[in-house]
Amino acid sequence: MVDWQEEYKKKLVSAEEAISIIKSEQRVAFAYGAEPQALGLALCSRLGDLENVRLVVPAPGRDFGWYDPGWEMSFQIEVGFILPMVRNMIEERRGDYIISGLVWAQPPGVRPNPDVLLMQLSTPDDHGFCGFGNSLWDKKEAVRDAKMVIAEANPRLIRTYGDNFIHMSEIDYFVEHIPTGKTPGATDILGRKSTGPGEVEKTIAESIASIINDGDCLEIGVGGAAEWLPLIGVLDNKHDLGWHSENTPRGIATLMRNGVINSKRKQIKTGIHVATAVGGGTREEMDWIANNPLIEVHSSFWVLNPAVICQNDNVVAINSCLSIDLTGQIASESLGPTMLSGTGGQLTFAIGAALSKGGRNITCCRSTAKTKEGTISRIVPQLPVGTIITVPRVLADMVITEYGIARLRGKTQRERVEELIAVAHPDFRAELRKEAQRLYWP
């Protein structure tokens, strides 16, 4: 048997050597999650040298320059999530959007098989296994789909329990690199710079907490009002909460450490907290997560599968939205044809919660939004033409704004109208009622 350490040394190359393998007209993909810094910089340095490379970036987190005008001859960009740094590119139609819950979440033969996959891994452990860090998503499947895999080995990536590892023998080349600071343009998972929750978010959080019972199994999405829930303190007096979630927002690990979330009442992975990504916390939270047997990171194919989600009773899915119409159609990706985000796991958890015994699906948002034209209502009579529906109205359950809780499940169209107008901003209620009368009453 070949010693893995010797094999690893033979696979070690510089970033420039690794990227020199890429040829014009090839399909090159980054793995889901943070782009490897050294490999990204080496690839962008080949501007003008390469032509018509189809570059797939599932969740843009670092700006290497190719989202700006002038890169199109070298790189044809395809993204799986519309984060702030790529919105101008998509709006100006200089790049394309991959329609999928997850970029690789397609059956074999349908999802793309890249010529080269670029990713981050930890350096190998004593047995030659590398960790995927604080997020797994579909990286194992991506490695097995790709014709060639180049990994940037970063010893600072945390290791977790679960299925969050791969043997170095499955990787073609390694580039060792420790990131130094942030690449210009680097942001949090949604590309936001926030000052924290305000009074509106605190009010929404209190309403959400009133629905959560001891023993419930939670999923909380990132972005918008939902993400602040763990930090506001409204869950601190709950007991035996469970965790089966796509992401793990800030504050969740602290609730785990304090015993508020212990997953003891879950039906699957009892006593174990499950997610496909555990990033986003403080350094202290990340240190607590690392190598902690109470937390397992698994593939998004399993974590986000509604047939898996619903095996837990009392699943409470909590997510945010951009807008919702008076019938309960939930839009979290676009306003009109203008893409602002992506599907993520919101739909799969809405389905899983609907199928779960005692499950609830909560959608929360501020009642209004500020635009260039002024303040608008997020609750609207009809969504603008071209708006992408993230969660269909048949799955709409509870909608929460700072004005209360609209309970939609089992309600008629007119009853839904009344529920949603009651939680809309008072300045817009008369207009909403007038339009509702025109649309839904004789």
Give an account of the 3D structure.
The protein contains 13 helices and 25 strands. By secondary structure, the chain is of the alpha/beta class. It has two domains: 4-176, 3-Layer(aba) Sandwich (Glutaconate Coenzyme A-transferase), CATH 3.40.1080; 199-440, 3-Layer(aba) Sandwich (Glutaconate Coenzyme A-transferase), CATH 3.40.1080.20. The longest helix has 15 residues, at 426-440. It is globular and about 75 Å long. Mean pLDDT is 93; it is low at 183-189.
What would the average pLDDT be, to the nearest integer?
93
The CATH C-level class name of the largest domain = Alpha Beta
Oligomeric form of this entry?
A: single chain
Radius of gyration: 22 Å
Q: Which topology of the largest domain does CATH recognise?
A: Glutaconate Coenzyme A-transferase
Helix content: 10-25%
Number of domains: 2
- Under the CATH scheme, the architecture of the largest domain is 3-Layer(aba) Sandwich
Main pleated sheet: 9 strands, mixed
DSSP E strands, number: 25
Q: Kindly report the spatial arrangement of strands forming the biggest sheet.
A: 8-14-13-12-11-15-20-24-25
Class per helix and strand makeup = alpha/beta
Low-confidence stretches: 183-189
CATH superfamily of the largest domain, by name, is Acetyl-CoA hydrolase/transferase C-terminal domain
Amount of beta strand:
15-25%
Separate helix tally: 13
CA distance, first residue to last residue: 80 Å
Notable characteristics:
442 residues, Glutaconate Coenzyme A-transferase, 2 domains, 9-stranded mixed sheet, 7-stranded parallel sheet, 23% helix, globular
